[in-house]
Design goal:
This protein is of the alpha/beta class. It has 11 helices and 6 strands. The chain has a 6-stranded mixed sheet. Helix 11 links the parallel strand 5 and strand 6. The longest helix has 41 residues.
Length: 347
């Protein structure tokens, strides 16, 4: 005859089962996913490069064209604001600070931001702030006027007369001439910013990939208020581009690409932190790996070594040297071409 458990024994058995389930969940959450599997790295690197190249060939030209069309409209506005460069003067910069980006690409030769700073002998912060569409707030009016005058003098001397053939004769340009100039300037601007344009588009695609994966599994995208501790994040939710307070005194604002709070979690648990990373070549990953190590240390100072994990979501050119460095720093990763590995985090 099978013995019948009493209430106390039954309750104890259930508690043991729950405890074992909790231990298994904790084990899965802290398990190493790819950092301890160097025998798979070569194959994964090749698959990751293939995925990035396939995306680039299919979508990068379209992304670039769309951005160029957007910038062309902005350049047209800049031309209208200066009467097609016929009334270009220091006041143009003061009333429309963001025009600096267009002006740098309107010279012969086009000049980079740092080159303009050096030629005009102005503060780097002044040019950066102007290009953001703002006037520097910590610079006195007289000092700012001198810097703008210096910038104007450089641009005026280098202005590409072939780009604006109507200026010297004092004519009004035909619409075709205006559109041609705006398109050339926009192409120069986008050419100078091609890598960031492609990188931003790729990052958005990576974040959407993670969001789709989570939403199919019942997770909801929901922002988390900065006034509440991150440990109070609602179970079964995730947030994008969330700022997390870290450091020993919680005074450092750390932006994290994806923060996920697992389902069926008791209160007070630290969520998952994921950084989306892509690379179109092998040359620029060394600098970025140090940034990731710094982020990991900041998270661990705040949440401890186990809970302060930073998991990378990789797509593109990440070689064995990069992976070995990350593994040595205690950083794990998930490959985009094997997105199901996210489940290893206890999702």
């Amino acid at each position: 005859m099978v013995p019948v458990l009493g209430y106390t024994a039954l309750r104890g058995a259930c508690a043991d089962q729950v405890a074992r389930a909790g231990e298994e969940e904790e084990r899965r959450e802290r398990a190493v996913i790819n950092a301890d599997k160097p025998h798979l790295w070569k194959e994964d690197i090749a698959a990751s490069v293939d995925l990035y190249n396939d995306w680039f060939i299919k979508f990068a030209p379209k992304t670039y064209r769309e951005k160029r069309a957007e910038v062309t409209e902005l350049v047209k506005e800049d031309l209208r604001a200066t009467s097609d460069m016929r009334e270009f003067q220091p006041l143009s910069i003061r009333t429309r600070p963001q025009i600096i980006s267009t002006l740098r690409m309107s010279t012969a030769p086009p000049i980079a931001r740092d080159r303009l700073i050096g030629l005009a002998q102005v503060r780097a912060s002044t040019v950066h702030t102007l290009e953001e569409g703002k006037l520097p707030s910590r610079v006195g009016a007289a000092a700012l006027a001198l810097e703008i005058e210096s910038i104007w003098q450089v641009i005026h001397k280098l202005l590409d007369r072939d780009l604006f053939p109507w200026i010297d004769p004092g004519e009004i340009p035909r619409e075709q001439e205006r559109v041609r100039a705006a398109t050339i300037i926009a192409d120069r601007r986008c050419g100078a910013e091609a890598d960031p344009i492609i990188r931003n588009a790729q990052e958005q695609r990576q974040l959407q990939c993670i969001a789709d994966f989570l939403q199919v599994r019942g997770y909801k995208r929901k922002g988390h208020p900065g006034s509440k501790p991150i440990t109070e994040m609602e179970p079964g939710t995730f947030a994008m581009r969330l700022t997390v307070m870290v450091g020993k005194d919680q005074s450092v604002q750390l932006p994290i690409d994806v923060v996920i709070q697992r389902k069926h979690r008791p209160g007070g648990k630290v969520p998952i932190f994921i950084e989306a990373k892509s690379a179109g070549d092998y040359t620029n990953t060394n600098k970025r790996r140090k940034e990731e190590a710094t982020k990991t240390r900041q998270l661990q100072e705040r949440f401890g070594k186990e809970d302060g994990r930073l998991v990378l979501f990789l797509c593109g050119y990440f070689n064995a040297g990069y992976l070995g460095y990350e593994a040595a720093e205690g950083i794990d990763w998930i490959w985009e071409h094997r997105v199901d590995d996210i489940l290893e985090l206890g999702i």
